[in-house]
Amino acid sequence: MDDPAAVAGIDVDNVTTWMTDNASGVVPPLSFELITGGRSNLTFRVADTADGRWVLRRPPLGHVLATAHDVAREHRIIDALTGTDVPVPPLVGLCTDEAVNGAPFYVMEHVDGIVARDAESGDAIPVEARRAVTEALVDGLVAIQEVDVDAVGLGDLGRREAYVERQLSRWQRQWEATRDTDVPVMEELHARLAADVPEQGPATIVHGDYRLDNCIVGPEGAVRAVLDWELCTLGDPLADVGQLMVYWVEPGDPFAGALPSATTLDGFPRRSEVLDLYAERSGRDLSRIGFYTALGYWKLACILQGVAVRYRAGAMGDDGHEVGQHFSQQVAALGEVGLAALTDDSGVPRA
After folding, report:
1. Staple 301 to which of 54, 200, 325, 334, CB 3.0 to 4.6 Å?
2. In sequence order, which ranges of 224-267 are alpha helices (DSSP H)?
3. What does the CA dihedral 72, 84, 115, 293 come to, rounded to 10 degrees?
4. Global confidence as pTM
5. Whether pLDDT at 315 is above 60
6. Who contacts 43 (Cβ-Cβ below 8 Å, separation ≥6)?
């Protein structure tokens, strides 16, 4: 019989021993609960019998590119940001000995709060606190971009120049590898993005996936921790602003079903207000923010195309073809919205 305590991705005995040796006050036995999985690094909630709680991150199961899911790099980034104005979870430690758990992993202290992944979880944020959460989210992004990367030891985290050009090249390769039908709007959007890349200013830390549901927030309105640093690098700070706009869904958006978001709830400001807040607090010129928002929609559409192909190939279940067709429709819709954002440098898509 299978061990009922077994957890895919966790060697319970070995990790328990490591936790006992490296985290203070651990009282075994430990329980492990998968919080997020899939193609990203796997995140587990860890609990002991004395109400101690931690969070463990490790690469996905199976064969993956080490550079794409480098938890040691992720740990390094959080460690470097500890003590800055960027809210990050307190670290317990990093284990690079693959004999312990089959892959490297790191452990953080558990941070209490709300992860507002959709409207249902976002309801836990009181209506009167939702603007404060928005302001804290903007302030958190500004704090990330104000970090002196050389002073904290992250000056070699990535190439500083030509961030957008590298993103266009990387995701176009992904698009070509998964494209199984003609989507003219995606070709047009890529061509227009590549033909008119804004001049990049001084490089900053780019989180790579900065949005509300990658943060832990408190009901009082504070951002208590920024999560999911696996895509972090150096580059153009406005890329994170454009990405934030993509996931800042408003009521009535034609693609709202593809992007469940708490920001559709009453009390959250609209995109234009978020941009005004960022411009005020960062001092950055947002006259080309439509480009960066369009880039974010294009990248998301490239990702969904890969998902659609996997569904149609039957990798995700018996109803794969139908679901795959649904994702393909979303790809085209996101391409249209990206074009709309590109032609309106307010960065507020109106398609």
Report:
1. 334
2. 238-247
3. -90
4. 0.91
5. no
6. 34, 35, 36, 37, 55, 56, 57
Q: Which residues contact 48 (CB under 8 A, 6 or more apart)?
A: 26, 27, 28, 29, 30, 31
Q: How far apart are CA 290 and CA 61, in angstroms?
A: 37
For 271-299, how does the pLDDT look when each residue is reduced to its tens digit (9 = 90+)?
999 999 999 999 999 999 999 999 999 99
Report whether 269 contacts 303 (CB < 8 A).
Answer: no
Q: What is the pLDDT of residues 193-236, one digit of tens each?
A: 999 999 999 999 999 999 999 999 999 999 999 999 999 999 99
Q: Residue 217's Cα: distance from chain center in Å?
A: 15
Taking CB atoms within 8 Å and a gap of at least 24, the contacts of 60-68 are 61/8, 61/9, 68/230
Quote the CA–CA distance of 114 and 227 in Å, as a whole number. Answer: 12
pLDDT score recorded for residue 314: 61
Whole-number CA gyration radius for the chain: 21
| Number of other residues whose CB lies within 10 A of the CB of residue 28 | 13
Q: Longest C-alpha distance within the chain, in Å? A: 62
- The percent of residues in the chain predicted with pLDDT above 70, rounded, is 87
Hey, which CATH number is domain 12-109, 3.10.450.50, 1.25.40.10, 3.30.200.20, 1.10.390.10? 3.30.200.20
Q: What is the mean pLDDT of residues 254-270?
A: 85
Contacts of residue 184, defined as CB under 8 A and 6 or more positions apart, other chains included, come to: none
- Find tokens 């500004």 and name the residue: 142
Helix H or strand E encompassing 220 = none
Q: What confidence score (pLDDT) does residue 281 get?
A: 98
**Sole residue written with tokens 């009922």:** 4
The span from the CA of 227 to the CA of 87, in Å, is 9
**pLDDT at residue 326, rounded to an integer:** 62
The closest alpha carbon to 249, from 266, 230, 232, 262, belongs to: 262
CB 212 within 8 A of CB 242: no
Q: Which CATH number fits domain 112-160+202-285: 3.90.1200.10, 2.30.22.10, 3.40.50.360, 3.40.50.300?
A: 3.90.1200.10
